Amino acid sequence: MNKGIKGSKAMIKEMYRFYFLIIVALLINFTSCKTTNNTSSAGIVGSDRTVIKESSTPILIEEIPILAWYGVMESTIGRYQELKEAGINSNFSYHANLKDLSLAMDAAKAAGIKMIINCPELETEPEKVVNLFKDHPALAGYHIKDEPNRNEFTHWGELVKKIQSLDNKHFCYLNIFPNYVSLEQIGTSTYLEYIQLFLQEIPVPFLSFDHYPILVNSSDVRFLRKDWYENLEIISNEVRKAGKPFWAFALTTSHWKFPIPTLADLRLQVFSNLAYGAQGIQYFTYWTPSTEEGADFHDGPIDFYSKQKTPTWYNVQQMNKEIKALSNVFLGAQVIKVEHITITTEGENGDIPTGTTRFEFANRPPEAQIITKFTPANNTNAVVSFLKNGNRCYMVVINRNLEGGDNISVTIKGGAGLQLIKKDGKAVNALFQSSKQTITPGDALIYGWDVK
Length: 452
Known about the structure:
Helix content is 28%, strand content 26%. It contains twelve helices and 22 strands. It has helices at 4-16, 77-85, 98-111, 120-124, 126-133, 153-166, 183-186, 191-201, 228-242, 263-275, 311-325, 327-330; strands spanning 31-34, 48-54, 57-61, 66-69, 90-92, 114-117, 139-146, 171-176, 207-209, 214-216, 222-224, 246-251, 281-284, 334-343, 371-376, 380-389, 392-399, 408-414, 419-421, 427-429, 436-439, 444-450. The strands form five sheets. The protein has an eight-stranded parallel barrel, surrounded by four helices. A six-stranded antiparallel beta sheet has the order 14-16-17-22-19-20. A three-stranded antiparallel beta sheet has the order 1-2-3, with no helix packed on it. Helix 2 (77-85) packs across helix 3 (98-111), helix 8 (191-201) packs parallel to helix 9 and helix 10 packs parallel to helix 11 (311-325). The radius of gyration is 21 Å and the shape is globular. The termini are far apart.
């Protein structure tokens, strides 16, 4: 196990007794609800939107939930407005007592931010906490536990059931370990078993997992963990079988061997998560933790000492603009298949990431026959995802190179009806665009088309 973020999380727990957690509005199951859209935003006309069922109450979700972990640490309206300006719509911060939590909830309400709540009393006096906040307009859900061991599933499952018996209109949330931790930490014989038992034994409406894939070596050169995409493969496959969505993370605070995140770093993490079907994006962290915790935290979106925005804040803001502009592509999308391309500078097939499948254009899905030519250039490292969203399908190609890596170029041609999806979400006729497209490191190239 790489001690990186896991050790840092433990330190935060010691200081704040529990971190923070995620998210907004969840999906017990995907159903569709038609909306009328006569524009060409993301190329969707009469597109399906995602309906999230919390209890018996259907809620129409119009944008992808974006959550700040270790979020706002000053309970003022201005700080929550600043969070919203960054494009974040959900917040998780640990609060030491109910009074502090109440102040934060009221500030969040005024700024239009939803809250995942936690305080010591949620475990010891769940009925008291739930009755205090279940009707609060800012409430999104209840944070139960981060990274539980399998031996804790029964305990936390019972707490979830208790809270849901008191409030079945807001979700309970747990976040699970990534696949690079030890079997001792997860308490099962395999990582797959850990995921399957979690989904079977804890009645939460979605799965959340963290995996921070970008590291730097002794020469300060970025590289990806070899098991990141394998983790996404496992999560995506298992939640599909369970009929639940999942949420994933992007790292936004540097420490140890984790670099200061660039826009390319954020794009690679976020677009890869979305390409595998993630329905929510979470940032660890928003407010930079104190360096006194021993992890050398620095350059998170809000600096711990000055309490001012850092360059990372603006990268997060830009990333969120792109997420929201492309919500019609990714929100409610179902994965058809995700595959990988590795072509060397000599034009040979190189090693693809562990646990993934090599992309072969001849074996593209039946839904993608509109694409008649797909030719990647030499020196290409890419993710290729096919998604279906209502009456639309999409092909997403992500440059898997990191910051400082190379652009990649692909030549794509298709039949009538193929559209190129621009960064602002607008769709344009691909016939009038260059068939050769360049993708910068971490970024995504997206095509869409109608299906019956």
